[in-house]
Design goal:
Elements (H helix, E strand, L loop, with lengths): L1 H12 L13 H4 L28 H14 L21 H11 L4 E2 L2 H8 L13 E2 L4 H14 L3 E4 L16 E4 L6 E5 L4 E5 L4 H10 L16 H7 L6 H4 L2 H4 E7 L5 E4 L13 H4 L8 E8 L6 E9 L2 H14 L4 E8 H10 L14 E9 L2 H17 L5 E4 L3 H12 L1 H8 L1 E8 L7 H10 L4 E7 L4 E8 L4 H7 L2 H8 L24 H14 L17
Parallel strand pairs: 2-4, 3-4
Antiparallel strand pairs: 1-2, 5-6, 6-9, 7-8, 7-9, 10-12, 10-13, 11-12, 11-15, 14-16, 15-16
Helix pairs in contact: 1-14, 13-16
Bound molecules: flavin-adenine dinucleotide, D-malate (MLT) and zinc ion (ZN).
């Protein structure tokens, strides 16, 4: 009865009560007869939404990223392009290769040009190293032997996970040896009572998700790159992603780590305890240190229970202020069931529709300026639905939401998510992407997008999207080619502006090579000095991921 009343009201309030066919949607997907109202639809339950649809690491995509780089590299002026090789590092020789073969076996020491070339280039095709060697260890002992040897020889190395990082941290700058963790992908144990997963660092996030879902749990993080990124890479970048709003940072969810230090020492911190205040909690040093302090080899992580009821709404708003108010209203009214609150501007939607195959705009092609995706996850299907419907109804009455749909099945929900998660994939198809990942107070978050748009003018297209619920803006500037003229309009302005707001120049992607020299925009010189001291203590020969994370001046 209550639902019928809500449905009636929703129909009345929807400003554009067009029929599904008019929106170009299949009536079987969006048929009004299903629920008797035309604007909001309900998902019937969700099992595995994210799937491998954004599996970004196929050989084809890597190859095309590589080719893309070939096209772009002459005109791209990245920080990496200007970094001098540190002459104190040794140059790889045939004795080194023989040693690695004796430890790892022939097949795990890769010199094949094509295979090494793929590992030399990042996912965007933007950063490219010139390593001659890719190592594929299969155990912690092998990682330890590699590092101990490299340290004594002063051979620089880059730890590499799924190579989906967006700041050039996962590929060499010069000739560093690449250590890929992909061969260390065993699940070690799962504690069914407490939901604690222990596994090797090279496990692909999506595989872990499937594994724990079968046991009635979920991973506390999810991101568009889940089909390729590794849990070790996630931990090393302290990845945020789409569930951060609900389950928080990996600093809270990671219970234990095993890490190999630069000199080969294995640091066993692989506890599965929730509480442990015995001395300094050293694992936190390695969460988010981007492979600059050690190589993560094993992980113990807390996985939340999988809840049965999920709803996904795709909404449009007329202005940014409405998105902001909607966020506050969602926190107040939906409270504990909100599991994602993502936003995109109109430019993102246009880009997704242009470049992502098979994706449909769930809303009429219209002049809406902003779009919000809200996901709720809870334990009571009818309560959750009623709560979401009532919230959306109120939001429409209050003028915060202009139009919207609720997915009524998994494929619709998948389509909504595909739009949001596919923005980065669509962006790289344009050619050149200048990518910024900022933490800014929500009230100010869209100001910089608008300012950037006027600075860049016709030279590029400016997109604003991100994890609004976490105050995390992704600011992308797209153009067909990299050019110094565009870069001059963007930097240092973007860093100065963010710093003036006391924001962060890296909310979740890390610093990598892109922003190693920019850390002072977000951290005090005392803090950066202390970071330098920690780096020197743990890696005195500076063999781990050189030129990344910290400015050269403190090393
Ligand atoms: P890599 O890219 O291989 O490496 C990243 C960094 O970690 C490098 O510095 C590398 O040296 C280091 N590293 C990797 N493995 C280890 C290890 N075992 N030990 C020590 N150091 C290691 N990021 C987010 O935070 N949120 C998102 O929502 C998000 N969405 C994305 C969507 C797409 C389509 C793409 C392409 C990327 C996205 N990212 C996102 C960025 C990226 O996926 C994450 O940073 C991810 O955590 C990187 O994992 P990886 O295994 O690919 O690591
Ligand atoms: C996202 O949220 O989509 C990711 O962090 C990737 C990106 O910013 O491109
Ligand atoms: Zn993100």
């Amino acid at each position: 009865m209550a639902r019928r009343a809500a449905a009636g009201l929703l129909r009345r309030l929807g400003p554009l009560a067009c029929e599904p066919q008019a929106r170009g949607m299949s009536p079987t997907h969006y048929g009004t007869k299903n629920h008797g109202f035309s604007r909001f639809y309900l998902i019937q339950g969700r099992h595995h939404l994210y799937g491998s649809r954004t599996n970004v690491e196929t050989d084809d995509t890597r190859q095309s990223a590589h080719m893309n780089f070939e096209v772009q590299k002459r005109s791209f002026s990245s920080a990496a392009a200007h970094i001098q090789r540190n002459p104190t590092y040794s140059v790889l020789n045939s004795n080194d290769v023989s040693y690695f073969k004796s430890v790892l076996g022939e097949s795990s020491v890769v010199q094949d040009e094509d295979r090494v070339a793929v590992a030399n280039v990042d996912w965007m095709g933007k950063y490219k190293g010139s390593s001659q060697l890719l190592l594929l260890p299969k155990s912690t002992t092998e990682v330890s032997k590699i590092l101990s040897y490299c340290n004594s020889r002063r051979l620089a190395v880059v730890p590499q996970g799924g190579n989906t990082g967006l700041v050039g941290g996962s590929v060499p700058v010069h000739d560093e040896v690449i250590i890929s963790l992909g061969g260390m992908n065993n699940i070690i144990s799962f504690d069914n009572v407490n939901g604690i997963l222990t596994c090797e660092a090279g496990c692909v996030l999506e595989n872990l998700s499937s594994f724990v879902e079968n046991k009635g749990f979920i991973m506390p993080l999810d991101l568009g790159a889940k089909g390729s990124c590794h849990i070790g890479g996630n931990i090393s970048t302290n990845a945020g992603g789409l569930r951060f709003i609900r389950y928080g940072s990996l600093h809270g969810n990671v219970l234990g780590l095993e890490v190999v230090l630069a000199n080969g020492t294995v640091l066993d911190m692989l506890t599965t305890l929730r509480k442990d205040n015995t001395g300094y909690d050293l694992k936190h040093l390695f969460i988010g240190s981007e492979g600059s302090l050690g190589v993560v080899t094993k992980v113990a992580i807390l996985t939340p229970a999988k809840l049965p009821s999920t709803n996904v709404a795709f909404l449009s708003c007329n202005d940014y202020m409405s998105c902001q108010k909607l966020l506050l209203a969602a926190k107040r009214s939906l409270g504990e069931i909100v599991s994602a609150f993502e936003f995109m501007d109109r430019h993102c939607i246009d880009l997704a529709m242009k470049y992502l195959e098979g994706v449909q705009n769930p809303l009429p092609a219209s002049p809406y300026n902003f779009y919000v995706l809200i996901e709720t996850t809870g334990s009571d299907e009818s309560y959750d639905k009623a709560k979401l419907e009532a919230f959306l109804l109120r939001s429409m009455e209050d003028g915060l939401v202009a139009d919207g749909v609720i997915a009524q099945d998994i494929s619709q929900a998948s389509n909504f998510w595909r739009i949001r998660e596919g923005i980065s994939e669509a962006s790289v198809k344009v050619g050149a992407v200048y990518k910024y990942d900022l933490s800014i107070p929500v009230e100010k978050l869209y100001d910089i997008v608008e300012e950037m748009r006027s600075r860049v003018g016709g030279m590029g297209e400016v997109l604003g999207y991100g994890h609004l619920g976490d105050g995390n803006l992704h600011l992308n500037i797209l153009s067909s080619k990299y050019s110094d003229k565009i870069l001059e309009q963007i930097e240092p302005f973007v860093y100065e502006w963010t710093s003036n707001q006391r924001g962060s120049i890296s909310a979740e992607h890390g610093l990598g090579v892109m922003k190693a020299e920019k850390i002072h925009y977000s951290k005090s010189s005392e803090a950066v000095q202390l970071m330098g001291s920690i780096k020197k203590l743990l890696d005195p020969n500076s063999i781990l991921n050189p030129y990344k994370v910290l400015p050269q001046s403190v090393l």
